[in-house]
Amino acid sequence: MLFFLISCFSFSFILLSPMKSSQWRLLFSSCFWKDLSSWLQKGISFYQVPMIIKKKMMMMMMSLGSSKKPENNVVVEEEEDEEKKKKISLLDLPELTLECILEKLSPDGLCNMSAVCSSLRDMCTSDHLWEKHMKHKWGRLIGDAAYREWQWHIASKQRETLINQTKHNGFFRSLYGLIRPKLDQKTTTTTCLPVDSIMACYVSLESGKFWFPAQVYNRENGNIGFMLSCYDAQLSYDSRTDTFLARYSPHGRRTIEENIAWGRLRAPPIDTPAHVLHISDSLNDLKPSDHIEIQWRRNKEFPYGWWYGVVGHLDSCDRNENHCRCHYSDMVILEFNQYPPGSRWRQTTINRKDHREVGNEADGFYGGIRKLYKEEEISMWKSLRPSQIHE
C-alpha cells in the first residue's frame, strides 16, 4: 500500500510540475506508458498487493497508455485533411470546361448526370446539348410533318396540365427511366422537364410515347402488291428491338405492321397529305430515263402511295439518243419495271400539259408526279428493287 501511495504522489507531482513541449511528448508517448506499466507490474507483484487492486491499476495503466495516439497517426490525419481540402467539385470547373465535358456525353450519360443535382440538371437538359443527339439519330426521319405533330403534342400536354396540375407526373417520373428501363424505378426527379424542350422530344421518341408521321418503303415488308412503293404511316419506336411499329390508314388490307427497320423509313419529301393530289411542277422537264415517283391509289377512298418508276420512250421512238424526240411530246410514258412486260401495271401514259388524276376502278388512279434529282433518293429505290420480276 505504501508503494502505491508513493507512486500516485510521484505521478501527481509530475503532472503538476511545468515541463517543456518535448517532455510532454515523451510523457504521452506509447513507449513511456508501456515502460511504466511494466515497472508497476513488477512492483505490485513484489509487495503482494491484493488481486482486486492489481487488476484496477493495470486496467488504468493500459487505458492511459492507449488513449494517446501515436504522433505518426496525427501527421497522417493532417495530411489527409489537407488532401480533402485540395479536392474540387465538378461544379468548381470553369463553365466552358464543364460544357466541353457535357458535350462528350451520350444521351444516356446526360440523363444520368442531370439526376445529380439541380445545377447539373439545368445544364444537362439545355437544348444546345440535345440538338446534336436529336439530329444524329432522328434527323433523317423527323420532317416538317413530324415537327407539326410534336407542336400539337406539346399543346395537348399543356392543356392537360392547366386542366389538372395535380395529375402532372413530371418527366415520366424519371429523366432517364424511359431510355434505360432497367434502372431503379424508385429514382425520381423533383422537377418537371419542359415539354417543349428538345430533350423532352428525344425521350418521347425513344420511349415510343410519341407517334410521328413518316413513310414506309415496301409496305408489309416485301409484299408483292406493294413492291417499290412508299406509304404514309404513324410510327412508334421500340428501343428494345431498335425497330418501329407502323399504323397505316384504316383503308386497305392491313393497318398495323411491326418490326420495321430504319432502312425502310424516310421523312415525307414533300408536304402533301396522303389523300391530296400533288401538284406536279416538273412535268415539262421529264425525258426518257428520268427517275420519278408517282401517286397511286386503288380507289377514291384509299390514300395515295408513292410508286417508283422511270420515264420511257414512246412507241414511235427508235430509242436512239441522237434522234429521240420524246421530251418534246405532250404524252409521257411511265414504266414500272418491277412488273413483267405485258402486265397492266407495267406502263401508263400521262399528259404533261394537262395532267390530273387519271385511271379507273380496275387499274387504280394515278396522281401527281415527282421527278427525282438527288442521287441519294435514286440509290435508295434501286436498293429496294427485287432481284426478279414479279407477275
Automatic annotation (TrEMBL):
Gene3D superfamilies associated with the record: 1.20.1280.50
UniProt keyword Signal present: yes
InterPro entries: F-box-like_dom_sf, F-box_dom
Signal sequence segment: 1-16
Keyword Signal: yes
Domain F-box: 87-133
Entry keywords, A to Z: Signal
Name the UniProt record assigns to this protein: F-box domain-containing protein
